[in-house]
Input
Amino acid sequence: MHSNRFQCAIRLTRHAQTRMLERNISEDLLLDLIETGSIKYKDAKHLWIFKGYPGRQDNLLCVAAVIGTALVVKTVLNHFSPE
Output
């Protein structure tokens, strides 16, 4: 996968892949989340990208990621709160 938003490859950890399966999040949904979701930075490299999806009962969806030469998705969360 590639992010046009961040202009880099997207890499998924095994943990993130497992959570995607458990939470019924497809690669297409994940890519939409990364490309169009709201961003909250922890610091220059660590961030959360989150977005609500109508029809899902587990909103907000979120990726916790690290950005460098690639966007590494560490995990995928549901019921996220940006506070």
About this structure: The longest helix spans residues 27-36. The chain has one domain: 2-77.
